[in-house]
Design brief:
264 residues, alpha/beta, Rossmann fold, 6-stranded mixed sheet, 9 helices
Length: 264
């Protein structure tokens, strides 16, 4: 019997418009009413994860920044907080500032982003701030991660920095089939699977009694750790091959499908 469900956000629980559908929300709440614990695991920063958790009533530790940060929403206690190499963060954000990349840099409890059309600063989630140049904020504290979107950005970061910082940082490159490609720069030990293992121990749930769902390369470790790995239909083929089951896509309420099939 499965007691826990670990869910990626982008491309899994959230649809292509980055919204939580009513169908998925209702299914997650139904699973929790049955006693299933739900854990959110995302490349996004804490504020985004917290917003989704609050909508669902999830109170388990949140796995953020691909495992670089694990934080309890109930009291703010950090189970894990790893920092990306400061030199790499400075070089990458300086280049990103110059190129105008879509980029998010997390330092302490703040995530910085560029101003873009359609953004209303007053309506941004908690912890998200506009910065003209993200590199200028790196003296405020150790950076948790740098998240960069776009195929050109992913390719340039990989070719320019991976040979220099390999072993000193983790370059998690994800190429979803229905959304922008991205790379997240973190501490070399930051990994969703490791973070999930810590959360499982915290909650007293054996890995074999957990289900993990995701759509990207960074979710494969969670598939291997848990008793049941489920990939989304919108996941790349190499991710689907690592899962025991494939759910309908994130635009077809694949999470709700999996909950009905395996948990209700």
């Amino acid at each position: 019997m499965f007691k826990l469900l670990a869910l990626d956000l982008d491309g899994t629980l959230l649809n292509s418009g980055l919204r939580l559908s009513d169908g998925n929300a209702e299914a997650v709440r139904a699973a929790m009413e049955r006693g299933v614990q739900v854990v959110l695991a995302t490349a996004r920063f804490y504020g985004i994860a917290l917003r989704t958790a609050s909508r669902l009533g999830v109170e388990t530790p949140l796995i953020c920044s691909n495992g670089a940060l694990v934080k309890r929403p109930t009291d703010g206690h950090e189970l894990i907080h790893l920092y990306v190499d400061h030199d790499l963060a400075r070089e990458a954000t300086t280049l990103g500032d110059e190129r105008g990349w879509e980029m998010f840099t997390t330092i302490r409890d703040v995530t910085y982003m560029q101003m873009r059309p359609g953004i209303i600063p007053e309506r941004l989630p908690g912890g998200l701030k506009i910065a003209e140049r993200q590199s200028e904020h790196l003296d405020e504290g150790p950076p948790t991660c740098v998240l960069v979107f776009g195929e050109e950005a992913v390719n340039e970061i990989s070719s320019r920095f991976l040979p220099v910082y390999d072993g000193r940082a983790r370059f998690s490159i994800n190429r979803p089939t229905n959304s922008a490609h991205y790379v997240i720069l973190t501490h070399p030990d930051a990994e969703k699977a490791h973070a999930l293992g810590v959360v499982l121990k915290e909650l007293g749930v054996p890995p074999e009694q957990a289900i993990a769902m995701g759509d990207s390369e960074s979710d494969i470790g969670m598939f291997r750790l848990t008793g049941l790995g489920i990939a989304m239909r919108n996941a790349p083929d190499e991710v689907q091959r690592e899962a025991l089951h494939v759910a309908p896509s994130n635009d077809e309420d694949g999470v709700a499908w999996a909950i009905r099939k395996f948990l209700l």
